[in-house]
Design goal:
about 220 residues, alpha+beta, OB fold (Dihydrolipoamide Acetyltransferase, E2P), six-stranded antiparallel β-sheet, 6 strands, globular
Length: about 220
């Protein structure tokens, strides 16, 4: 059977010289991996973190690793790909999704929320330094455990005031909350601790170190 679908790319694993395993999020299959052929002429941006893709799924009753037909970008995301800060942020956010969502899991509405969040970041022209923090808070809500100040208090330490401000603010207002680089890094870390607590698995996000360099 064949099905056309949309995907959010979380990560890739190279298999030989001509194949990639794509770790994805989709509305039909949730978090799932697929294999696809790739030519040397394929644009690199197609397989960068949080790329929005269209492809045909080719089911295989003999294998859990189904194949994707020709993969193409559903939206080019030029606003992200042409900005090193946004690319660094998507590297971090894609790893959070990859480490948090178990293979085979499917949360109702999660794909749509993620896609909307990616398009919002792509469209923003300024004042997006706090975007990854807002994303983490809303991601918790999308998973079913929207945090309150009381919920986050055990994780906040000296950063309770700024975290409370984030929670009280609208999405637009939260982008304008002044923070130092050290504060952004600390808040990102404590929100990861909060997510890890709720999924009963500590989140070891390697790209957090890259994000810290961005916000020194």
């Amino acid at each position: 059977m064949r099905h056309a679908s949309q995907f959010i790319l979380l990560s890739v694993t190279k298999v030989g010289d001509k194949s990639l395993v794509l770790h994805t999020l989709s509305p039909e299959w949730g978090r799932r991996s697929f294999i696809t052929g790739v030519s040397r002429k394929a644009p690199m941006a197609l397989f960068m973190p949080l790329s929005l893709l269209d492809a045909e799924v080719i089911e295989n009753s003999k294998s859990d690793l189904w194949r994707l037909g020709e993969v193409c970008a559903s939206v080019p995301l030029n606003g992200i790909r042409n900005d090193v800060r946004k690319n660094t942020m998507t590297l971090f956010l894609s790893e959070v999704l990859l480490r948090t969502l178990k293979d085979g899991s499917r949360e109702e509405g999660l794909f749509e929320w993620c896609r909307s969040s990616i398009l919002t970041l792509d469209a923003m022209e300024s004042d997006f330094s706090n975007y990854h923090l807002r994303f983490l808070l809303e991601f918790a809500g999308a998973l079913g455990f929207s945090p309150s100040v009381e919920d986050l208090m055990p994780f906040c330490g000296e950063h309770l005031e700024v975290v409370s401000h984030l929670l009280r603010s609208s999405a637009a207002e939260s982008m304008l909350i002044p923070m130092s680089g050290a504060q952004r890094n600390a808040v990102a870390s404590l929100l990861l601790d909060y997510l890890g607590y709720h999924i009963d698995s500590p989140l070891q996000i390697r790209s957090l170190a890259v994000l810290r360099e961005l916000y020194k």
